[in-house]
Design brief:
The structure is a homodimer of 460-residue chains. Chain A is of the alpha+beta class. Chain A folds into 2 domains: 3-195 and 367-454, Aminopeptidase; 197-251 and 297-365, Alpha-Beta Plaits. Chain A has 13 helices and 18 strands. Chain A has a 6-stranded mixed sheet. Chain A is globular. Chains A and B meet through strand 10, helix 6, helix 9, strand 11 and strand 12 of A and strand 10, helix 6, helix 9, strand 11 and strand 12 of B.
Chain lengths: 460, 460
């Protein structure tokens, strides 16, 4: 038995209780009133890194929410690994659908319910503990390590594309390992070979100078809600295909081999629908459900509002209407270019009688691809094969981790994923949870990965 | 000089201060949490009627907000007039656009700013004061009087179509005079010959069993916001004509003479747009702006909501979307039938992949018409001609006073209007106000009208 296994076993109770403390910090990056909580989470992470034996720990200002840096650089002639995760979380609305308060972690058997439990606090805490276990039990680490933990992932890491190039040397490494990731199932591992990118805009429609009486003026002027509905309806056809000019121009169509690799990953559409509580899928014709989620771009309205939302009725003709839209992007779509196409579409399709404006939302992440035969993915695969007793599936994700694109752009750094989230854990939704079993398995996996990466001179 | 003029002059200061007290009651009928305030307003009105010398005053339960009744029935062989108004008010949102708190009436020169100042508390208080002045100064009234003041006008008087037939005898009269009405301008009078009706529904779209991550499932299932947008967009063409099957079938097209009468009423489109802060009108082709407001039906979205409405971004694929819709109706559209057409349209046009349901909102008022040569309108015209020195314009309103249709259906009672609101007074909007000059002129007009109606044996 390796020493790190003993260390993990002897300290697990303390680690578990520390996770619950971490989850109590309401570090919602999207809401300005929670900025101090994001800062507090950064301080918690920095303290915890120091306790694990990490050196040069620093909370670095970015212009937005901070980044926590730390390193251990005493493994001569060994590669340098940058470990990534995020300590910010999603907003909690609709709050009334939570069974327990989102920032009072509630344990129920194997499950820990809390906002951020799986995305990403539980998963990002795992490598810190693994590093502590290896360092304290072996006396040193088999690789050089750097940490980049951020507090703005849930708003699209808006500052990092400026921040990281400014600190290129500090963050330079051979390979990034992202702890913002998942398992295929509790018993099946995966490696991540592709992520979708993201970008978004807000649309604001303005009519008269104040809200009006729907009887007095109704029928004589453009209703901003009608204008918004008409505009939004120009963005898809009835089958769900996006009708923004040029939107698909840069999309790489996959080869038959690549589509076959996707088809080999188990997927039960019936279970998928049952989990969602739906009777049918819906989406762009010509692609499977998995392909729609993994290799096809989307344009989703995330929010819409205007006029009266209370009980009963208010016969108002409102003077404002709003919508938030994000697009998931695939290789080789460029977020900045897609935002321009969206804005051009809004300009070209704005109904008359109102003023329509757009704001770029702080989210631009490039789509990302790391082949399965990349040395980093090979190392991760070796660890997972040993731990689960089977070859990991090569998956993609419909989600976005903007940082992967930024690491590549700013630091020429490829990213592989090693995380332990599972699909049913309600990320971005009420009653988010994480599993103790994932938390514990993850610590072992990271210990094994550190040792496995130490066996090679270079991984990039 | 008539005695009532002296009485008004001597008591005006008191009346003015009473109006401010009335405006302090936040009697918002649409919001359940304000039900007790609507009740308090009813008690205020009942007390005030008693002080004016009205008999048999009673707060009558309706199943919803109450009705205040009172009478004075000692004018033998004279007609019985039912005076109508409402003491409930609209909600106040968006609150941040009010310069002063909506229920702390603020006087600025001739203006009294408060929610309900002109719609309808200021206007409904006027006939009470006129009756007091005539009764106290002349010792008796020239006509028999009944009062019907309600607390549910702003939610479409949902209970009254059941309540009034139950109390047919109590409310029977020869003519109703509605104080929920306006002047053409400060120097020009009008009589009201037509009102639009109203009905409405709420549309609720339901998708998955919880909010979802727009990356994980985006592109694979129907987004309820997309479905709602698509559905709502089927209800109008691009020019603003309503495309709900059968919607226009019962609409009476006006004769050339009737359209000419409308064209004779002064209307300055430039001033209209300037007041609204808009550059262009918008609406059904083939009709003038005034015709679109007065004699054409509408379908307006009054509110829409779903998903994330906060600052920044939340990459959610929400599982609910909602909209509130009301229609303004013209002769001979039937509110219940139009609601059925709306529901059928929703059923026929619901996108697949979501569940769409509708709720009938508590608003159904028939469109209404009282010819200019009706004896009631002739009496009102006589009073206005004397007071303003010109023939009143024959106008219609795009708004709805559901009670007029209910009075006709339940009591076979025609309604004429005598009120003193003006178009710029921000009804249903922030910074609603009323004018002291209207309040004082109105009291004179009602004193004159009581005496004028006393000169005739029958007005119906």
């Amino acid at each position: 038995m390796s020493d790190w296994k003993d260390y993990l076993a002897q300290n697990q109770e303390r680690f578990d209780s520390e996770l619950l403390n971490f989850l109590r910090i309401p570090s919602i990056s999207a809401l300005p009133e929670h900025a101090k909580d994001v800062q507090q989470a950064a301080e918690w992470v920095a303290d915890r890194l120091r306790k694990a034996g990490i050196e040069n720990v620093e909370i670095m200002p970015t212009g937005g929410h901070p980044v926590v840096y730390g390193d251990w650089l005493h493994a001569e002639d060994k590669p340098t690994i940058l470990i990534y995760g995020h300590f910010d979380v999603q907003p909690v609305d609709p709050l009334h659908l939570w069974t327990n308060p989102p920032f009072e972690p509630t344990v129920d058997g194997d499950r820990i319910y809390a906002r951020g439990a799986t995305d990403d606090k539980g998963n990002m805490f795992v490598p810190i503990l693994a590093v502590e276990a290896v360092l304290k039990s072996q006396g040193s680490l088999p690789v050089n390590l750097k940490f980049c933990f951020e507090g703005q992932e849930e708003i699209g890491s808006p500052e990092l594309s400026v921040f990281l190039p400014k600190h290129k040397e500090r963050f330079s490494a051979d390979l990034a390992v992202s702890a913002d990731a998942g398992q295929f199932s509790e018993t099946e591992p995966e490696i991540m070979v592709g992520l979708r990118g993201i970008c978004g805009i807000q649309i604001d429609v303005k009519g008269a100078k104040s809200d009006l009486h729907s009887g007095m003026v109704g029928g004589t002027i453009q209703n901003p809600l009608h204008a918004l509905v008409q505009l939004l309806n120009t963005m898809h056809d009835q089958h769900g295909r996006i009708t923004v000019d040029g939107f698909y121009d840069e999309v790489v169509e996959l080869s038959d081999e690549e589509r076959a690799a996707i088809a080999r990953v188990p997927f039960d559409e019936e279970v998928y629908l049952d989990d969602l509580g739906l009777e049918q899928t819906f989406g762009e014709p010509g692609y499977t459900t998995r392909e729609r989620a993994w290799i096809r771009p989307t344009l989703e309205i995330n929010g819409i509002w205007g006029g009266f939302q209370g009980d009963g009725i208010k016969t108002v003709l409102p003077n404002e209407a709003h919508a938030k839209i994000t697009c998931r992007l695939v290789p080789n779509q460029n977020p900045a270019h897609i935002v321009e196409l969206l804005q051009a579409h809004v300009r070209a399709n704005s109904p008359r009688g109102v003023t329509v404006s757009t704001t770029v939302l702080g989210t631009r992440g490039k789509p990302y691809l790391v082949p399965a035969d990349h040395p980093g993915n090979i190392a991760v695969s070796d660890v997972l094969r040993k731990l689960y007793g089977m070859e990991p599936y090569q998956v993609r994700s419909g989600g976005s981790v903007p940082i992967t694109g930024i690491f590549m752009d700013a630091l020429n750094l490829p990213t592989v994923a090693l995380g332990f989230g599972l699909n049913d854990e309600n990320i971005h939704a009420p009653n988010e949870f994480y599993r103790w079993s994932s938390f514990h398995k993850g610590q072992q996996a990271y210990c094994e990965l550190l040792n496995r990466l130490g066996e090679t001179e270079g991984v990039a």
